[in-house]
Specification:
Growth Hormone, Chain: A; 18 helices; 77% helix; globular; disordered C terminus
Length: 481
């Protein structure tokens, strides 16, 4: 069923979501998402202490990059694994990989071991998040999707709040290893819940699908995607303007090649049909997600440093300002969920425009105003994306080809992760080439900071264009091959 403006599907209320039959599935999804989201933020406060103890401070950035790489690659392939192994087995395998990653991190004696653990955490966590989106599309009626997305946004919000705090407590006590052990224990709990909640009978349908189609993994395409992520991560760490620009351009080129090549893979496709057609619903929705998530990364990376240096905040206070991003996202996702279908298009278009306003406000407020105004600008940019996020997911999934629902569901969090990677790399390129460093004076930092946000305005405007194409009435037919 397509979610268009003439759709008879009515939005569901919260009471229709929180039923006895839905709650166990929601609990499973919440725990899986919590493990991934909290551990992402947990690393921000545990890894610096870990690196000082075991050595390898210069490799901390790679602990995040490899986590992201593993998350993106496995998230892209989840539809294949679900088809071959079934939802139950794939979720248990993802949780087990995440579990081993936590144990390796908690027992690491050198940075190389910790990087291996972080990569496995990314693989398992990325798999679990992709599966949450697949469960969402399979287990809930289309009318409930915005409500479910709002709940998942709340999980992200809570995780973003407690992740740094949990890691900070363990790190402050000199027990950073136990932070990872605690999450390993939760992964065991998830495996147990999956075994109980996902019956083996549900695998029978999967076996029938498996007999009809046995998709393999397109190794070359995945290599292109991995190379894309690695190139943009390297670009964000170099201060050579020409080199960093070439790395970013090459990375984006490899991403485009990956999308183009994937469309020719037939049953081995990772992406839904229409992903490469940017003026069509699926392609425009993915491009919209990519642009808007990239725009939000500058403050995540450089906001705390600016607040500490220019405004005299403590690291903890700067961290709380950063938490506003997740709070705004989750709050507005809940407030705007479940509205009548006729409001979906204006919400998506208005939400993309609000993100532009928020980025522009950050450009004006960060250099020389107050922390309060900076926080308001951050709230605006994240509120725009939070309000429309549920409807982007709903429309991309519903507009996908009938046989592509699983691919469309699993690719949404992957697109987010790629957007974050590109945004982080571009922010690093901008900062490094403007002379940002540990020795920059406050005056130099004040002069550089506006460009960290202004440079993303063209990207945000492109997102608005994709939002228009994504919701245009002329696109209500499902994409064809």
């Amino acid at each position: 069923m397509n979610a268009d403006s003439d759709s008879p599907v009515k939005p569901a209320g919260w009471s229709e979501l929180f039923t006895k039959s839905n709650l166990p599935t929601l609990a499973l999804m919440v725990l899986a998402l919590w493990l991934h989201a909290t551990n992402t933020m947990l690393a921000a406060t545990t890894l610096p202490v870990a690196a000082m103890e075991i050595g390898g401070v210069h490799l901390i950035s790679w602990a995040f990059s490899l986590y992201l790489l593993g998350s993106v690659l496995v998230g892209t392939t989840m539809s294949v694994f679900v088809t071959r192994w079934g939802l139950r087995n794939t979720m248990m395998a993802s949780a087990a990989i995440y579990l081993f990653g936590c144990l390796i991190c908690g027992s690491s004696q050198q940075m190389a071991q910790l990087l291996v653990g972080r990569t496995l955490q990314g693989v398992g966590g990325g798999g679990m998040v992709a599966l949450v989106y697949i469960i969402q599309s399979r287990a809930f009626h289309e009318s409930l999707i915005p409500r479910v997305v709002a709940c998942m946004s709340l999980v992200w919000m809570v995780s973003s709040f407690f992740g740094p705090m949990i890691g900070g407590v363990f790190a402050t006590l000199g027990l950073w290893r136990y932070a990872f052990i605690v999450f390993a224990a939760q992964a065991i709990l998830l495996i147990f819940i999956v075994r109980k909640l996902v019956p083996a009978d549900a695998e029978k349908e999967k076996e029938k699908e498996k007999e009809k189609e046995k998709p393999g993994l397109p190794v070359f395409s995945l290599t292109l995607l991995a190379a894309c992520i690695i190139l943009v991560c390297i670009a964000g760490t170099t201060s050579r303007g020409t080199s960093s620009a070439l790395l970013v351009i090459s990375g984006i080129g490899l991403l485009a090649m990956y999308v183009w090549l994937d469309a020719k893979q037939g049953s081995r496709r990772m992406l839904p049909i229409g992903a490469s057609r940017l003026t069509q619903p699926v392609g425009a929705g993915l491009a919209l997600t990519l642009c808007m998530t990239a725009c939000l990364m500058s403050f995540v990376i450089y906001g705390p440093i600016i607040l500490i240096r220019l405004y005299g905040l403590t690291p903890l206070s700067a961290g709380f300002v950063l938490i506003i991003e997740a709070l705004s996202w989750g709050t507005f996702a809940v407030l705007f969920s479940g509205l009548p279908v006729r409001y979906e298009r204006p919400i998506v278009i208005a939400g993309s425009c609000v993100v532009v306003l928020g980025i522009a406000a950050q450009t004006l407020t960060v250099p020389a105003t107050s922390v309060t105004l900076i926080a308001l600008a951050l709230i605006v940019s994240c509120a725009g994306f939070g309000a429309m996020w549920g409807y982007i997911i709903k429309r991309v999934t519903s507009q996908a080809n009938t046989n592509d629902k699983t691919r469309a569901s699993s690719i949404m969090p992957v697109t987010q992760q790629i957007g974050f990677a590109l945004g982080a790399a571009l922010a690093g390129v901008i900062a490094n080439n403007l002379g940002f460093s540990d020795t920059s004076t406050n005056d130099e930092l004040r002069a550089i900071s506006p460009w960290l946000f202004a440079a993303f305005l063209p990207v945000a405007f492109a997102g608005c264009l994709f939002a228009w194409w994504f919701t245009a009435d002329r696109q209500q037919t499902a994409p064809c091959s």
